[in-house]
Amino acid sequence: MAFSSLASNRLRVIIVGTGFAGLAAAIACARQNFAVTVLERSSGLSPHGDSILFGSNASKLLHRWDVGADMYKRGASRGKWIFKTQQGEDIWVEDLDEFPAIYGAPILQGKRASFLGSLGVEARLLGVQIRYESEVVKYWDSAEEPAVVLASGEVVSGDVVIVADGVHSPARHLLASRDRPAVPKRPSGYSIHRAVMTSGAIASDATCADFLDGTIRTWVGDDCHVCTYPMEHGNALAFTFTHRDEQREASLDWRNKKPIAEATEQLDASWDPALRAVLAHFPSTLHWQILDETPETEWISAGGKIGFIGDAVHAMMPTSLQGGSQSIEDAATIALCLAMAGSDPAGVRVALETYESLRRPRVQQAQSLGKQQQDLWHSFASRASSSTSSPPRPSSLRPLSFALYAHDAEHFALVNFPAYAQANDPDFVMQRRWVVEAARNAGIDLAQVPRPPAGGHGSTSESDGPLEVLRERGNGSERAAESTAKVLRTRRSTLLRRRS
Ligand SMILES: Cc1cc2nc3c(=O)[nH]c(=O)nc-3n(C[C@H](O)[C@H](O)[C@H](O)COP(=O)(O)OP(=O)(O)OC[C@H]3O[C@@H](n4cnc5c(N)ncnc54)[C@H](O)[C@@H]3O)c2cc1C
């Protein structure tokens, strides 16, 4: 059996998976000068999938990491988002060009494979080692030196393992204990058809050439909705059609393509003729079952050195419009927590516990907004037709996820880490220079991070200073994080009591 103990005097980080969560974590960790190795079972970055959207909350991090500008160039992230009735009448228009001014960064909307490529290049430029055809088949959940075993039999050990192996997360099953088995994800009762095609045939069809004009369009029907997304500056178009599917006939495999008729036959003549015309050009559709998710109970392994991020710990409904974005926030937060805990193996457990405390309430909020969004969009048509006295407001179609866009996950971690680390481990002694260095490595000027009102409860080993009281003003997630920290502390001590 071959052993690779990643030799380095820097914190040795092993990341499993090269989806957005894994690559973003690789970039954020490399920016903190950690020695990063990413293990991916496939032979390269996945070419699968179609359109993906990153909200301003993720986009501001990606821009700070110098990769957002490239994604912005590759995507179709400006223009309008128009909401329509099933018949094609405009109900609400959102001006995406205003988003940088309102939320601090544009949305990034484009082809999944292309965006993944941008992150892959950046990770390599930062010295990240990406090893393809390296499937992890076993985890060693050691409190001293965690390790993974590859299908080849090679053992790779490090100081921390970050699991970003996606919605089906083999790691979750490999790490589950007999008394706490991994919970299988539940079908939500809805499925989504999705596809992407290059623009040729659409561009030459006068009835639907408008679809390539840079506008995102959403039609709300009876318990369903359809979206079209322009990509690559009008050179490609993607669509999604989300509908009730009690039969659960949809697949769970991103490669399982079906004839387009399986989608279009559900959109009868009452639907917008332009939409029907454009969808007729797509050769096939991928029919994907939407899984209902609550965040997993365990975000960290019992040994305290293996943490989960991205879909592996909290898949999102597509209507949350936050699947990719929350992965980026996870990645940013976990890297900063490791750095603020001293960039040292001894600080890994408190770093991972604090990452969970900071992230769990936010993730729950995004998941819950996704469910509410689906209900709102899917009931709009029936509420509009049944209610004459108080019809639903057109603005109620505005995506609820916009409420998450102003957040800056890195600021939030810098502000709240000291208090939550202390809450998770009262013996943890933090040095202010760890925060200063973490912020500097992340490219953040601490003086620009919003100062909290007097009486903040942060504490460091040194005397009062700006870091001690850095907290985001008026941010509801902070209150939620406080109560989560309490719940997690109680649960952890119950677990520890049970183990001893
Ligand atoms: C093929 C594919 C296509 C998608 N297309 C879209 C889309 O079009 N639109 C959209 O909104 N969302 C799409 N998604 C989902 C979206 O990418 C995620 O919600 C989000 O980006 C977070 O992903 P993640 O990095 O947590 O997981 P994923 O993107 O699922 O990445 C997980 C990675 O881990 C690797 N992996 C798994 N097990 C192992 C193992 N044992 N050893 C080593 N590597 C392992 C996988 O090969 C994969 O590369 C897609 C996901 C996938 C996998």
UniProtKB/TrEMBL annotation:
Annotated region Disordered: the residues are: 446-500
Q: Which UniProt keywords apply?
A: FAD, Flavoprotein, Monooxygenase, Oxidoreductase
Domain FAD-binding per the UniProt entry, residue ranges: 11-366
Compositional bias of kind Basic and acidic residues = 469-481
Q: Where is the composition biased (Basic residues)?
A: 488-500
Protein name (Swiss-Prot/TrEMBL) = FAD-binding domain-containing protein
* Record's keyword annotation contains Flavoprotein: yes
Q: Which GO terms describe its molecular function?
A: FAD binding; monooxygenase activity
Recorded family membership:
Belongs to the paxM FAD-dependent monooxygenase family.
Q: Does the keyword Oxidoreductase apply?
A: yes
